[in-house]
């Protein structure tokens, strides 16, 4: 269980990085808990520079500086570690977006900007979430949880602010899933696959945030 930690506010970089967020409070923990945190940080660091398929127990132990057998005191296998790392990353992303939602100004724009900042700061980890295949069901499940929990929040907000003929909850859920997929596809092209045409169109980050915000608002309009 990763304790809740201090997070960032609007227009700032995400908590000095996910690894630093994981490490907060580490020195106050017992040795066993510190070792588990070290393995999570090693996994996060590895996935920040390598695809999921290259992750091995040996590689993680080398990065963490622990014996191979020590790994199995904390995780069943590499998939178990991946699930724990990406599950914690999902918590981190959600905390960033919730903090943005509490800031003054346009909530939709604030949260969209926060999500884009996390995507830009952690493209490899986001790729691990978005593009997780059948070989890593834990990663896929982590991304599905991120999607579902955030979409539930978006739809609940939309229903509270109803200003006209209300749409049904299933309709709003479908719209939110479709819109979220569009946003992920655009940000993946921009930050992960480095599509040259998308990059050329995205020089002004503020304009990108405005565009994505407009898509959310129009798509969820009652």
Automatic annotation (TrEMBL):
Residue ranges the UniProt entry marks as DNA-binding: 56-75
User: What are the GO MF terms of this UniProt record?
Assistant: DNA-binding transcription factor activity; transcription cis-regulatory region binding
- InterPro entries according to UniProt: EthR_C, Homeodomain-like_sf, HTH-type_TetR-like_transc_reg, HTH_TetR, Tet_transcr_reg_TetR-rel_C_sf
Residue ranges of every copy of the HTH tetR-type domain listed in the record: 33-93
Record field: transmembrane: none
| Pfam families named among the record's database cross-references | EthR_C, TetR_N
Listed A to Z, the keywords are:
DNA-binding, Transcription, Transcription regulation
Q: Which domain of life is it from?
A: Bacteria
Which named protein is this? Answer: Transcriptional regulator, TetR family
Recorded source organism is Roseovarius litoreus
């Amino acid at each position: 269980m990763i304790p809740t930690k201090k997070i960032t506010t609007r227009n700032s970089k995400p908590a000095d990085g996910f690894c630093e967020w994981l490490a907060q409070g580490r020195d106050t923990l017992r040795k066993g808990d510190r070792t588990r945190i070290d393995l999570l940080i090693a996994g996060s660091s590895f996935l920040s520079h390598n695809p999921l398929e290259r992750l091995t127990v040996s590689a993680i132990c080398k990065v963490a500086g622990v014996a191979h057998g020590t790994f199995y005191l904390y995780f069943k296998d590499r998939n178990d570690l991946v699930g724990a790392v990406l599950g914690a990353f999902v918590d981190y992303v959600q905390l960033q977006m919730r903090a943005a939602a509490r800031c003054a100004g346009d909530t939709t724009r604030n949260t969209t900007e926060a999500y884009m900042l996390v995507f830009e700061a952690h493209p490899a980890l986001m790729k691990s979430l978005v593009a997780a295949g059948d070989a890593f069901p834990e990663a896929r499940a982590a991304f599905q949880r991120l999607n579902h929990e955030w979409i539930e929040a978006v739809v609940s907000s939309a229903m509270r602010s109803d200003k006209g003929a209300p749409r049904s909850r299933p309709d709003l859920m479908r719209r939110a899933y479709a819109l979220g997929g569009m946003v992920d596809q655009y940000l993946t092209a921009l930050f992960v696959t480095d599509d040259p045409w998308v990059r050329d169109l995205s020089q002004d980050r503020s304009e990108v945030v405005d565009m994505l915000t407009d898509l959310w608002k129009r798509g969820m309009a009652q």
